[in-house]
Amino acid sequence: MFRLDEVPRILTVLDDFYAFANPIYKDNGKRFKFLQPVKHMLFDDIGSFPLPEGITRDWIFKNLDTREYEEMVQRAFLMKVNSGVECPNYPQFQDMIEQFMTIIKNPEYQDEAYLVSKKHAIIKELEAVEKIECNSVRVCVTGPFELYYKELGGVIYDDILSNLATSISRFVENAVRYNNVKCVSIDEPSLGLSPELQPTQEQIKLAFEKFKFDVDIQIHLHSPLFYTNLLEINEIDVIGIETAKDRRAMDLVDLNDLEIHDKKIRIGVARSDIDGIVAEFNAKYNVNAWKDKKLIAKAIEEMEDVKTIKNRIIEAYNKFADRIAYIGPDCGLFSFPSQETATILLKNTRKAIDEFREGR
């Protein structure tokens, strides 16, 4: 037996033992949590990627069917792979709206208004990636609400929404015929952000009930406020939130909700807001990094270093544990000034993940 006044000392000894035994050991403000590092979290990326120097989106639009564009996509995909991304998205060089709406609205490709024929629902970048060896691929598609909102505004007509949802599901159906497609992400950045876009629960079900596929179906949100509206949608497996820029976003998601509805979560653990990253670096050192490519690289390396990213992973895991299915940058990296600077962020993220998994 031990005396009551010995309890604090005994707890301190146990804390020291657990901390020694397991470096992934976080003070939660009350007692320590003893957590084992896990390997089930896959490192993915959202999709968009900087264009090669001298290439514009106008050039891409005119050269979508060329071998030159195909090779450009393949090179960028391999840059993601070589940076350590485990489930890389095809490089999304096109505008996320035009990429799909240009095809959906083409009268020659339609079954009816806003309903593309399945044979034309092809993601050219994915087709390019599938011509090279790749073990795992993520496929992003622009969600039906985002397409509807950008095309027609916030007043939702169910028949048009249904056609857009079916159209996007046909892109997905054609994509998942490849066995290496492990995850499909539906990008819905305006849900929860735009006050004009307020779908009913019935419309939410209408939009997503068509996405019944034997791969992980993510939904990528820019605001976590909307996640409760998706808990009853059986077709959605993983809810993606951005937390690296603002860790308070994690506080808006209830672990109990995820467990009750058997949902997983994707956590953004590396910032993708390059303007903010460089602005903070400029303020810290009183410089203008935008004038010097080397300084931009240094800004990313320093402001989003391995330790910072790893600490975010630890914090996320302390809250969500095995509910985390995917981790990676908050959002796409298209706004980064070069492909090389984008890979700095990806490589630091991979190093942080490796250290977390190894308990370092």
Please characterize this protein's 3D structure.
This protein has 360 residues and is of the alpha/beta class. It has two domains: 1-36, no CATH class; 38-358, TIM Barrel. 41% of the residues lie in helices and 14% in strands. The strands form three sheets. A seven-stranded parallel beta sheet has the order 3-11-10-9-8-7-6. Helix 10 packs across helix 11 (293-303). It starts with 6 loop residues before the first helix and ends with a helix. 41% of the residues are buried. Residues 1-37 have low confidence and may be disordered.
Please outline the helices and strands.
Elements lengths: L6 H15 L3 E3 L4 E3 L7 E2 L13 H6 L4 H16 L15 H7 L5 E3 L2 E2 L7 H6 L7 E6 L1 H9 L5 H18 L5 E7 L13 H8 L7 E5 L17 E5 L12 H6 L3 E7 L3 H12 L7 H11 L2 H15 L3 E6 L9 H20 L2
Parallel strand pairs: 3-11, 6-7, 7-8, 8-9, 9-10, 10-11
Antiparallel strand pairs: 1-2, 4-5
Helix pairs in contact: 6-7, 7-8, 10-11, 11-13, 12-13
Task: Give a quick precis of the structure.
It contains 13 helices and 11 strands. The protein is α/β, with parallel strands linked by helices and 360 residues long. The radius of gyration is 22 Å and the shape is globular.
Task: Name the descriptors.
single chain, 360 residues, alpha/beta, TIM Barrel, seven-stranded parallel sheet, two-stranded antiparallel ribbon, 13 helices, 11 strands, 14% strand, globular, disordered N terminus
